[in-house]
Amino acid sequence: MLKRPHTEFVQSQMLPWRRIPPGAARPDAEYKFLSRDPDDGACTCLIRYAPGWARLADEYLDATEEFYVLEGEIEVNGLVYKADHYGHIPKQALRHSMSTRSGAVVLTFFDAQPEFHAEGSATSAASEALLHRDVLHMPWDMKVNDAKLAHLGISRKDLRADPVSGERTFLSMMLPHSEPPGSHGPRESHPVVEECFVIAGSLVGPYGEMHAGAYFWRPPGIPHGPFGTRWGCVALIRFVGGRHVNIWTVDEAPFDFHQPYQPVLPPEYAHLSALPWVPPQAY
Is 205 exposed, middle or buried (0-12, 13-18, 19+ CB in 10 A)? Predict the structure, then answer.
């Protein structure tokens, strides 16, 4: 799942909805690929479940599924995940039921090709280990983790941390009217993949302004920043493939709230670089 191309960044609003092929579920659901590993099929996608969608057979995936509900609600094995709820379903966990009455839009991460299999090799231990977090009512952790990011006033809600691999998933909130002192600052990089989806607000960086719906997949070792935001930003961030560490450059880069859209995109998204997404007018 670590061979995906650098994608920084694409507004998901510009990607087409695709119909999931007919199967055991009715009615059909739709998806947008945000990124995908060409070798093992691991992917990040938006999935839109129609009202009344249901998958009732006892089945499992040979992939771990991690998700955040953006709209609506979805039920898995009797657990109801509403908007702003987070879930984690281990590989080979048996799903007795999965459905939605009202419909849902779900940001979803799979660590392998998401193909359903009939009951047989599913493990009872995995089936009992579904994670369910009501993120809306979790408190923000407002400790400053890195002094070089203090200007953003970052707060976090930790959704999941793997004690063995060090991989993390969390919400990150940045305060309005945040910019690096003097409009310049060092750049950071990480020894692991950083993946991000902007849920609300916007964030300005060297590739342009990421609005709600923006997504990036950044491979290890790529310097980035500095960042700022006029009216705040909330983003879901994942560090994939190991433990997150900030590595800072000695030199500094300029910051500009009017940075033009200059993305790094894989070939299938290259045409979007000439068609920057314009958010709807607020008034």
Answer: buried
Residue 166: what residue type? G
pLDDT in tens, 54-69: 987 788 899 999 999 9
Q: pLDDT tens across 148-178, in order?
A: 999 999 999 999 999 999 999 999 999 999 9
- pLDDT confidence of 259, banded at 50, 70, 90? very high
User: What does the alpha-carbon distance between residue 41 and residue 26 come to, in Å, rounded to a whole number?
Assistant: 24
Q: Give the pLDDT mean for 189-203.
A: 97
Quote the Cα angle for 231-71-15, to 5°. 75
Angstrom distance (rounded) from CA 75 to CA 132: 11
Identify the band that residue 123 occupies on the pLDDT scale cut at 50, 70 and 90. Answer: low
Instruction: Find out if CATH 2.60.120.10 is the number for domain 7-136.
Output: yes
- Report the phi/psi class of residue 164: left, alpha or beta, with left for phi > 0 and alpha for psi in -120 to 50: alpha
Asked if the bond preceding 27 is cis, omega within 30° of 0, the reply is: yes
Mean pLDDT value of segment 180-190: 96
Q: Compute the 3-state secondary structure of the chain and give helix, strand, coil in percent, each to the nearest 5.
A: 10, 45, 45
Q: Which long-range contacts (CB under 8 A, 24 or more apart) does 265-269 make?
A: 265/7, 265/8, 265/10, 266/5, 266/6, 266/7, 269/7, 269/10, 269/15
Quickly name the fold that domain 147-273 has: Jelly Rolls (2.60.120)
List the one residue out of 58, 54, 55 whose CA is nearest residue 124.
58
Exposure string (b/e) for 147-172, b if CB count within 10 Å is 16 or more?
eebebbbbbbbebeeeeeeebbbbbb
Parse the chain into domains and list their residue ranges: 7-136, 147-273
Amino acid at residue number 4? R
pTM for the full predicted model = 0.94
